[in-house]
Amino acid sequence: MKVVGFTFNAFSENTYLLIDEASRECAIVDPGCYSPAEQQQLRQYIEANKLTVKLLLNTHAHIDHVLGNYFVLSAWPDTPYLLHPLDLPTLHAVPLYATPYGFAAYQPAEPTGELAAGQAVRFGHTELEVRFTPGHSAGHVVFYHAPTATVIGGDVLFRQSIGRTDLPGGDHATLLRSIETELLTLPDATTVYPGHGPATTIGFERQANPFLA
């Protein structure tokens, strides 16, 4: 599996393409593409590399991670869109604050399926394990690919930081417990691709993250 990242919207959100190199099938995780230029950048990469979009996945449903959901489902119709059901209230709240946040053109999209702890998500020859990691939001999940020791981590663990917990559905103790049980149990060499900022590793965060001391 190959991971390709894009940084989109005013929140500098990381959108990820997960590519099964054998089949050229891919999953789009947390599309934050809002402007036509950002949407075109994602589309052009997919078309230029002859990829087939098989899944739309959200780690969680805060506005910066779902701005491009409608575009993805319009550009690649019938793509399954999966979200943990506990984050549906978070998703449904987005239209209430999109315009004040400067995203008046936001268009909502509704999931077609659910994510659950321990679920296997497949595209091509790639299988991702869903790990339930609440704390930043009530239904947050991460996606773990064991063969490449890779985690698509959303807003749980950042390089020397952690996700904020002052938004609705957030809880600091719950977030720390999620990190301890679902991320720090992975091998030190595991790469974490977060929702914002640079990639990091479990081993580095175990040693250098002040929130985990």
From TrEMBL:
Keywords: Hydrolase, Metal-binding, Zinc. Its cofactor is Zn(2+). Residues 12-196 form the Metallo-beta-lactamase domain. It comes from the Bacteria. Gene3D superfamilies: Ribonuclease Z/Hydroxyacylglutathione hydrolase-like. SUPFAM superfamilies: Metallo-hydrolase/oxidoreductase. InterPro entries: MBL_Glyoxalase_II, Metallo-B-lactamas, RibonucZ/Hydroxyglut_hydro. Pfam families: Lactamase_B (PF00753). Signal peptide: none annotated. PANTHER family: HYDROXYACYLGLUTATHIONE HYDROLASE GLOC (PTHR46233:SF3). This is MBL fold metallo-hydrolase. It comes from Hymenobacter aranciens.
